[in-house]
Amino acid sequence: MKSVGIDKPKTLKKVEKPAAPLITEPVVEPVVKPVVKKTLVSGIKPTGQLTLGNYIGALKQFVMLQDELEDTEFFIFIADLHAITTPQDRQELKKNIRSVAALYIACGLNPEKVNLFIQSEVAEHAALGYIMESTAYIGEMERMTQYKDKKVNQVEGVRTSLLTYPALMAADILLYDANVVPIGDDQKQHLELTRNLAMRFNNAYGETFVVPEGFFPKTGARIKSLTEPLKKMEKSAENPKSYILLLDDLGLIRNKIKSAVTDSDGVVKFDLKNKPGIANLLTIYASLSEYSIKDLEKKYEKSNYATFKEDLAEVVVDAIRPIQKKYFEIINDSKLDDILTAGAERARLLASRKLLKVYKKLGLGRIR
Ligand code: ATP
Ligand code: MG
Questions:
Q1: What number does CATH give the domain 38-216+333-362?
Q2: Which one of 198, 201, 218, 344 is CB 3.0 to 4.6 Å from 117, fit for a cystine?
Q3: 231 has catalytic annotation
Q4: pTM for the model
Q5: Per-residue model confidence as pLDDT tens digits over 168-190
Q6: Ligand 1 centroid to 183 CA: how many Å?
Q7: Dist CA 362 CA 351 (whole Å)
Q8: What residue ranges of the chain are covered by domains with CATH 3.40.50.620?
């Protein structure tokens, strides 16, 4: 049988050491692409417009990692199946899906490097999600704090999927043999569950899944609400003053920061317990600038909150302005559809292979 690996050096030998005059000709070297060894997976729910918390805790991390991790293939998705764990308006959902996709690109995600896709367009997510439900125990699901927190806000009844969606999240990750999962602090518990489910399945049926590691930002893994700084900033929160949206009017952003809840102490100091509002604003500032929290405490040692907030507002506006510009360039461009189509195709290829393997291990269907 002919082997490409053996043939290649022979071919190269023929053109080796050309006679002197040919030296000026460009020597054709085989293109050596870096060998992809690892996979990174992450997603964001299109449950509303994206917040500054999503940007600092997730999007900004993806962009940083895409340049850092050369040997890693990225799968970043819009988690629309996760969105329907709570009621969604059809038109709003459609808009939000596209908006999240465009924001990924606007924040700097490189479609050449990253497979960007919509979760529901890769049916294997739901299929493996069901297998993961059949791997997890109800008790494990009931312990998830996100479930406990979110179910209290449900007026129309708590959907079953709100309880079981961590199994779908496990599937999202395990389908692609993800090694790295960049997420905010609030997803730690779900990632731990994913690891347990992967190990449980592997123990029962033999090596099938890679056990993933979480990647958490050093600063900004949990940006807090501007109105209730003990709570997380969240896109589905009721009060629009509690969050900064990446697509908020720049003037509105300045006002939201100006009216952010602080304390009466007047000292710009990082103290999570006694000054959660100021601690949160310092975290946002440090995440979006070259300053560390320590640097900022020094810089504003003699300032009042008004000056500190004014400067922070400019830092936030400067970070968001170019994102908005890019967003409006891409949101109605058919290029965005091409990116999503290509991303889904690549994702489907890997996901279908993995699902087949899982079905086989379980004895499902007629797969030998
Ligand atoms: P929802 O209110 O619908 O739960 P959300 O704002 O919490 O929305 P998710 O879609 O649940 O957003 O999370 C997307 C990603 O953003 C996850 O990696 C999550 O950890 C991260 N993230 C969400 N909120 C924050 C925050 N306040 N600070 C840092 N990271 C965050
Ligand atoms: Mg959330």
A1: 3.40.50.620
A2: 344
A3: no
A4: 0.87
A5: 999 999 999 999 999 888 899 99
A6: 8
A7: 17
A8: 38-216+333-362
